[in-house]
């Protein structure tokens, strides 16, 4: 019922940011390729952080 009160973990925040960046990069790719490439670069950096966190939790 009160899921909006729950605090998100760092991993969940990063996953949300990654998803948001990828969606915006896809939408803007038609109009501005350079801006889309910049958003993809940011998303790749976030993805590397996500993989790092996931590898730490597995071990």
Account of the 3D structure:
The structure is a single chain. Helices cover 76% and strands 0% of the residues. It has helices spanning 10-28, 33-58. Helix 1 packs antiparallel against helix 2 (33-58).
Count of runs of 4 or more consecutive helical residues: 2
SS-derived structural category: mainly alpha
Q: In sequence order, what are the helices and strands, one letter per element?
A: HH
Label the overall shape: flat
Helix content: over 70%
Oligomeric composition of the shown chains: single chain
CA-based gyration radius: 14 Å
Question: What kind of sheet is the major sheet?
Answer: none
The count of strands amounts to: 0
- pLDDT averaged residue by residue: 91
Classify the beta-strand content into a percent band: under 5%
Instruction: Give the N-to-C terminal Cα separation.
Output: 33 Å
**Low-confidence regions:** none
């Amino acid at each position: 019922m009160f899921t909006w009160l729950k605090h998100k973990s760092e991993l969940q925040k990063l996953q949300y940011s990654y998803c948001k960046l990828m969606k915006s990069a896809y939408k803007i790719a038609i109009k501005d390729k350079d801006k889309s490439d910049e958003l993809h670069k940011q998303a790749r950096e976030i993805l590397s952080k996500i993989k790092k966190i996931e590898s730490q939790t597995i071990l």
